[in-house]
Amino acid sequence: MIGGVVIGAILGIAGTFYFQGQKLATLESQVEQLKNRPVETASSQSSSRPETSKSSTVKPEELLEIIKSQQKAEVKASSGESASTSFTTDDLKEFKRKNVPESVANKLKGDSHFIDVVLAIKQMEPTPRQKLLNQGMETYKKTFDQLGQVSREGQTNAGQEAEQLIAKAVVDLVKELYGLPVEKLDEYRK
Questions:
Q1: Cα-flanking dihedrals φ and ψ of residue 155, to 5°?
Q2: Domain coverage including residue 177
């Protein structure tokens, strides 16, 4: 009985290695095919094609996640009403004094993923593009008053204002950049 279990285990392991080997061989074949493809240069690409190969896998809706991540990085999460557990009006004054929204926009200009998102947005029809940009402007947490409770899902009034300022800065930057030629946008990549 034990011998049968051991033999079954050995066969199972051998089968796993066989299938992994097949997958590896397939991947190696795909890599070789890609190596043999000619590399597209800026001069060989059609001038009517305003997207790069990197942006083809990026979805315009990723803009909303970029806004949220910038808000999370720059606006203290609020879980209470005291200064130690919330984004206060003093925090907002400092936020504005440091011009955090402009700093966020400047940082994003050098972010290649953000530029890819801008390129994807550039490809959109005007009406869906405007709808997405409007969603971006409305990407911020509700206040505790709007939620009817104090919780991490909400934000203070000052925190919400800071989040709104970041959303506006990011959307304004997208509007500024998507009007530029692709070649100029590629210069922003680092």
A1: -155, 155
A2: 54-187
